[in-house]
Amino acid sequence: DLSILGDKVYILKSNGKIYSFPLEERAFEETDDVKEWKSLLPPGEYESLFADEQTGRLYVLCKNCPADKGNDRVSGYVFHVGDTIVPAGGFSLDLHSLSAFTNRVKHGLRPSALARNPVTGEWFILSSVNKLLVITDDQWKVKDAIHLNANEFNQPEGIAFDSRGNLYISNEGGDLSEGNILLFARRSK
Questions:
Q1: Looking at the whole model, is its pTM more than 0.85?
Q2: Angular region, 174: left φ>0, alpha ψ -120 to 50, beta rest
Q3: DSSP E strands: which ranges in 24-162?
Q4: How far apart are CA 153 and CA 174, in angstroms?
Q5: Is 71 in a helix, a strand, or coil?
Q6: Which member of 70, 79, 101, 119 has the lowest number of beta carbons within 10 Å of its beta carbon?
Q7: How far apart (Å, rounded) are the C-alpha atoms in residues 127 and 74?
Q8: Of the candidates 137, 139, 144, 126, which has an alpha carbon nearest to the alpha carbon of residue 61?
């Protein structure tokens, strides 16, 4: 996953390493100003990264971590970003509470992307494996789970909001369909 925080780009590799480089370097094919952050996360597979401009924090959700097996949870990690990246706490998503909304999590959630709605403060967690969009409050309590139609969502792997609260979900392409980005306009209440 990739996120921008201030004047830096942060990239999360599936093995849990985080890389950063100045945003101004994005136009170049290569840069010598890449920093690698090792051992911030426990062993596992990761795909979900969110950078919070308001707090200067990075949020990471585990996709497949040994520590979560058999615990009916998905672990999350928070990091404060300054001159360096330092741990700032953790959180977890309770899969028992998610089962009240869907039966698609019997073998785990396996998050593929994470974003926060800037208007409501709710967290949106995308799971490509489960074809599921999970919505939680700001304390990670599950509020809803929306099944994603496989005909529309070939392989949902990315999620983002614009400043007005419009939702974007990106789908990877494959042999049968091209990748795309779908826009879901925010409805006024």
A1: yes
A2: beta
A3: 35-37, 45-52, 57-64, 73-81, 85-94, 113-116, 123-127, 132-136, 142-147, 156-161
A4: 12
A5: coil
A6: 70
A7: 12
A8: 126
